[in-house]
Amino acid sequence: MFLWRDIGGLNKFRTFLQESVRVCIIINNRFGVFQILYNHARANGRGKILDLVNWWSNTNGMFHTPLLPVAFKIYRNFHGRLFRVPVLHPPWNFVTYSNTSYKIEVRGGRDDKLLGLLSNKLNFDYEYFDPPDRSQGSAIVNGSMQGVLGLIWQREVEMFIGDLTVTYERSLAVEFSFLTLTDNEVFLTHSPSRLNEALALIRPFHWQVWPAVLTTIFLAGPFLYLLIRSANRWRTTNSNLNDCIWITTSIFLRQSISRTYKSNRVRLLIVLLYLVATYVIGDMYSANLTSMLARPAREKPITNLEQLYQAMKYSNFQLLVEKHSASHSVLENGTGLYKNIWELMRNQPVSLIDSTEDGMLLVRDHKNFALIGGRETFLYDTRRFGAHYFHLSEKLYTRYSAIALQIGCPFVDNFNDILMRLFEGGIFTKMTQEEYRKLEDKRPSTDVKKEVLEGTVHSDSENEHRMTASMEMLQGAFFLLITGYFIAGKILEILEIKDKNEFILIKIF
């Protein structure tokens, strides 16, 4: 607010005015009369024009109250004002760039519809243009900011609408409207591959169970031998250690034995071994094996940040992030686990990508890449590139998207009023679902429509998908049979050579 004694000199002062700065000038060029000039008296974008909005005289007082017009009423109608809006690549603002003719083909999209609703309600026009730097911008660094947010910060454009996450660093450079999308931060990996069917025979039991099972089998024979010897008061019997081992092996292989024992303790042990082999080990093993053959097992997916960090540290896993995005800012400025992950990313050959689409193509074609970003964006793009190629992690944290405006924007309240009404009426959700529906209609009817896997649970569509049975599911049994034949043949060969040597020695002596 300025007090001006004379109207002269205002023309030079107008050249420094900005619409985001509210300027009120009080002119006292006549005795007893004060004129009030204001630069927010019209919404047509001519913020450098000072309009007479009120005056005061010592005889009649104030002409009308309040002193200055309310910005909310002024900016209800922009009177056809033209806004230049920078656009980035899909998903939500679906556009196609043409670098030869510098034209943008608009194919509609969620944000394009939202901007159309705002323009119809507030009576303004807009045109899209390709920004010099096709990135969002994350923070002010060394007195400058990259991307489309840098254009808003330098007051070259008025707004940007897109998949733009609200962060503290960005709020220092631009002003955000009411939220337009509620999203969650996740990371995307390649879909877990199916495990080798040749190892299906050892997979029904966890690796921690197998040592206990094998120990039970190996110790059962010597324990039976000691029990038989103790029942005969440690006298020599017809049963030796080899016979006891053979008997227990036959029991665990579910074979019958012909020998009988008079001692009740020995009989009780044999019955106990039959129960363990049949109902505890055998039935559980058979049930788990049948279940795994019916639904082939997959590799364990990476579902949280701790697992991702371990995979990056020990398994040459690489994490990608879109440069100048909100995820990039969180990783670069984060602490704890985020800081450790960022340090590993700095040693990668590639860590920053130009767009989410580039990262998704790398994740789809390679198993050692992951991409961090917004869940809604990933859900949309996975349906474009094939949901069965990807796996979504657990939700890391909640984030919100909004429209970016200049700091001090006078019409932010008008935008917020419309956005809140759309949010309360469920229009945002309906617009998002409509984009998914349009995407499904564009897909060929021959494509198998699957949902992307999330967390540790597989989708129902994958479980219900029927597969033709093949011999690959049973190849492990044949490998085991061949191995058994080979070992048995070698043992027989060794015994045959041993018997021949003993026969030759006996014949010589």
From TrEMBL:
Organism annotation: Rhynocoris fuscipes
Family: Belongs to the glutamate-gated ion channel (TC 1.A.10.1) family.
Pfam families found in the cross-reference section: Lig_chan, Lig_chan-Glu_bd
GO biological process entries: detection of stimulus involved in sensory perception
The keyword Methyltransferase is assigned to this record: no
InterPro entries: Glu/Gly-bd (IPR019594), Insect_Ionotropic_Sensory_Rcpt (IPR052192), Iontro_rcpt_C (IPR001320)
Keyword Hydrolase part of the UniProt annotation: no
Domain Ionotropic glutamate receptor L-glutamate and glycine-binding: 107-178
PANTHER family: IONOTROPIC RECEPTOR 20A-RELATED, IONOTROPIC RECEPTOR 40A-RELATED
Superkingdom field: Eukaryota
GO terms, molecular function: ligand-gated monoatomic ion channel activity
Protein name listed in UniProt: Uncharacterized protein
Cellular component terms (Gene Ontology): plasma membrane
